[in-house]
What does this fold into?
Amino acid sequence: MFMNAQSRIILDPLVLSGKPIIRGTRISVDLVLDLLASGWDDASIVKEYPGLCRDDILACIRYAQEIIRSERVYSTTPQGKITG
It folds into this structure.
């Protein structure tokens, strides 16, 4: 069963300078996301990194989604004025 990102993704200042990693590994979330963005599928990632499972990959995606969802964007132009 899929576990939430918080149970699989950790930040440890002693591992990879505190970058988010998959619990029990030294594999960073950004590495997994880079592989997915480069066209790798779940099976290829798990084959190359046998310590991972599909739920770890899904947790990386969920973690990125949560980060982006919490991001706040502030306009640098006056309201109603369009530039460009």
Residues 24 and 45 are 16 Å apart (CA to CA).
